[in-house]
Amino acid sequence: MKRTVFLIAASLLLLSLAVFTCFAGTNEVIKIGVFEPMTGANAGGGQLEVDGIILANKLYPTVLGKKVELVIADNKSDKVEAATAAARLVEKDKVTAIIGSWGSSLSMAAGDIVKKGKVPTVGASCTNPLVTQGNEFYFRVCFIDPFQGTVMANYAFSKLKAKKAAIIQEVSNDYAVGLAKFFGDSFKKLTKNPKSIVAISNYNTGDQDFSAQLTNVMSKNPDVIFAPGNFTESALVISQARKLGIKCPIIGGDTWETQHFLDIGKSDVEGAVFSTFFATEKPITKESQKFLTAYREANKGNDPAAVTALGYDAYILILDAIKRAGSTDRVKIREQLAKTKDFPGAAGFITLDENRNAVKNAVIKQVKNGKFVYLDTIQPK
Amino acid sequence: MTLNLFLQHLSNGISLGSLYALIAIGYTMVYGILRLINFAHGDIFMMATYFAFFGVIIFAIPWYISFPLVLILTALLGILVEASAYRPLRDAPKISILISAIGVSFLLENLATVLFGGVPKPFPTPEIFTSMVKIGTVSIQKLTFYIPVITIVFLFSLFYLIYRTKTGMAMRAVSRDHETAKVMGINVNLIISLTFGIGSALAAVGGLMWGMKFPQIAPLMGIIPGLKCFIAAVIGGIGNIYGAVIGGFILGIGEIMIVAFLPDLTGYRDAFAFILLIVILLYKPTGIMGEKIAEKV
After folding, report:
1. Distance CA B146, CA B144 (A)
2. Whether B15 contacts chain A with CB within 8 A
3. The domain that contains B207 carries what CATH number?
4. In terms of CA atoms, which chain A residue is nearest residue B17?
5. Looking at the domain that runs over A146-276+364-378, which CATH code has it been given?
6. Inter-CA distances, B64 with A377, B74, B239, Å
7. What's the pLDDT at B57?
């Protein structure tokens, strides 16, 4: 008898909970999912984007008269966990839209889930072309790797006068492999020498010892090393390369722009050059100014990273699409997102092409005296 | 492959191998005395690196004071883990303690994530350890010389402790039979605590060296070194301290040489360690130095 009473009480409790959460879900808030790595190897990058998203949420807390609530889901820098986190946002939290993720592999892991759940998703800094390819619900506010790879190949060829390049890539990371391929292809085209990539060496995410790969690369005597990958591994690669006595310039991609890259690499990463999205020295729009002022106010005058600006942009772009759609209907929001043209974001004007990618300038930065310094801006063709 | 290139690879391999050896000793020692594979060893190793991070970077204590402090703190952590997670299970079947060890491992990983954050942190690298020496065209980090020396110093101190002191005799007695040792007036709990303390301090030494060689630390950093050093201990014959050192070197040099001679297989470097484990378990389960001991209990 006691048992049945208990069971009834328990089920009633559960039921009321379910009903309550249902109502809470449909009431006056609009939920936006934040799908980012908050722990694990990519956490440093994820945190930077989340900073931008939270700042944007503070400046623009409402849309259509409703409060916007951020639901942060940690994808733990892991492809399997990423799929689970995305499914949670789509099925359990029933968010209106999703922002994320830092890391193209993690974004791709969510691709099918947001497509099936028909949730418009805006990536901030995931640059691999496959993220949005064939996925009508995935957008991004950054350029893609074919462009970024060309920019760095051009830099190596014309600025560094390199004739031979070596590639060290994080082989388990779609971003790094993609970017390395685009770099290699366009470097070969520029040098008109199919053998100008003298070595391609691989490592796995989470590796800490690169001495063997670097020794192999060193024996080929390249003029430049292109080493796209996660910032922690990349900092260790550069640091170990310098300790082995490799003196040639080492260049990479947008993932390097984190404080952790500098902290871990210390003096060894001095002179490292990479491409990224935005430089605080060159604010582009009115929104850039607003973003910079607010960020500096909140962070003791420190300057934001490029991906922080992109996280911010992803949020305000979604809000704008909701406003234009005039409703929280996900499909309508998606349609409005696809029509984005010359939208003034913090990191420049956003125009989405037919593959839902932003067409934007790239910025080249270098590490000087323990800081990221602006070098150059490259226009897309 | 030129001779110089080979020597550079070899020095890389020895450097990595002696690190593995150092950590494997701690593994094998606990197993030798308790017949327990302490799966939390890798996580105790991780905690040690965080202690050093807090000591040197946050509280700005010079490394020559904080590093010994790290050893003491980590030894205390090991003793605490033993007293809370293993001692209550002393009379339970071995498998329960093993599961408890896995539990401790998860606990420490998640505790570290909550306390220190999931973002990797830089590790302090005192100049005297990390500067480079050039011999011919081979450049070697000073640490590469220190690690084998430190490994050997600890190896011999351990031998002295185990075979030349009363405490060591008690440890050996406990490893044979808890009950009889107790009857003979040995304080079994004290001896086991001591074993854990020493094993954890060895993990801390390994952690400090590892951190200086690969200067970034994260809550999950202990998993792979923990597994690799477990493999090293098994290759050498688990429970045998010499074996752990040999196993460590085989694994370290093997991993580097795979990349050196077969660059296309670089991505399979970790797989190499596990394949080696499978082969050893199939053909020589007692490991290279392991004697056949009839399993008690």
Report:
1. 6
2. yes
3. 1.10.3470
4. A209
5. 3.40.50.2300
6. 47, 16, 32
7. 85
